[in-house]
Amino acid sequence: xxxxxxxxxxxxxxxxxxxxxxxxxxxxRARQVSVGVVALTLALAGLxxxxxxxxxxxxxxxxxxxxxxxxxxxxQLGVDxxxxxxxxLTALLTxxxxxxxxxxxxxxxxxxxxxxxxxxxxxxxxxxxxALLSAFWVATLIPAGVLVSRSARARPESRxxxxxxxxxxAGTLPLLxxxxxxxxxxxxxxxxxxxxxxxxxxxxxxxxWQTVVFGLLLLAACVRMAVVPFHSWLPVLMGRGPFGxxxxxxxxxxxxxxxxxxxxPLLPEAWAAGETMxxxxxxxxxxxxxxxxxxxxxxxxxxxxxxxxxxxLMLAGLATMNTQSVAGVxxxxxxxxxxLTGLKLVVEALGARTGTTDMxxxxxxxxxxxxxxxxxxxxxxxxxxxxxxxxxxGEDLLLHGVLEAHPLVALPLLLTTAxxxxxxxxxxQKTFLGGVSQEQKSLLDTVEDLLPRERVAALxxxxxxxxxxxxxxxxxxxxxxxxxxxxxxxxxxxxTPAPAHAGSH
Length: 505
Description:
The protein is mainly alpha-helical. The chain has a domain at 282-505. It contains 20 helices and two strands. Strands 1-2 form a two-stranded antiparallel ribbon. Helix 13 runs antiparallel to helix 14 and helix 15 (370-383) packs parallel to helix 19. It is globular. The chain starts with 5 loop residues before the first helix and ends in an 11-residue tail after the last helix.
């Protein structure tokens, strides 16, 4: 343990950076400040992983700042095996977005919103109190909502604003309702800290409230994960919304963390009873997102529906609830987060150069932008689990876990992965290969290849997925205790022995 308030510094630093941007007027200077802040944030997140002790029970690196008078909200931050990796993933994705995103898309306001969203997301992963966790959940959405409102004033983008507001309210109000309900129950029982997560898990939820609480928390998580039928905001925001927001809201997998950190430990009986339903929803979402991604002609919307499909696969794996499937889901959340962020950066670089991401208006770009084509190809196959990548290990564990529990269910998962691979190969073929019409030739002749900062970001993200595929053991070990504990809770409810730990690949 350390006396340094590391997690508090980690959460506050991006917010301070966003405030500092209000005094910076030059766009280039604003970007430099933002890159410096998010790079330092990533360094602090890396230090948290170094100091974290795998297998130790309870939260680690705890910072406690007392309680909110009269409410009993515990101002405490800490990390476990599931959240400590999420901190680095959030910081890494934000750094790549800020450092390698298109300059015209990263004005001072957008940079400030990205930093505020990062700060709130990091706080959400660290919160050890349900009320504090809910406050950070809301805080991730407020800056995004303001920026979406600002960018949606033009008529074609008005749908973005309406869709985003509607779904974020639908995903926030249930969590706030559950927080108030559990707080009232705690106050009535005389608990000093009614929202503390450890205390909530120990007390449990009264039987008469379990179904309601489970349904509300599940709704909040599914909306944030963009699980079908609560998904339509994501492709719209990905296609028309401000740069980077959709990735920070979904690709860091806060909705998945809500299930892992709160829903399953708090309501293992309800989770065990709903596993079949959740597995079916996850399978349908994965296949539906894959099919719709295949039907798109816009690269941004294609990536959006691929995110939807990945969320479905993760929900299906989590619903299976054995050690292999859960370890695979958590590994896949990192792999998909890294690979899809890299893919999105390449797509945005393409859009910034050509003014479009419509595949029907592109073609033959491999001759003008070979590096862009190469990274699109590599990151595409890293996304769908090409052998040798971290996605391959995650999907392998997930599929083995599903096969062990429900052999027939693995077939739709394999079909989903195959469709996603076809989608990305088709996108690569239409965008970078093939001939170019005379109408398109004048547009594409001026296309510039990836700049050094864009190449560094794309190469770094692919290298992480590749090295992670070769050495997945550390990521598996750091989460092994949390996976075993979670699976054991649900197994004890089922009355079955907890499965053995998944070995490293």
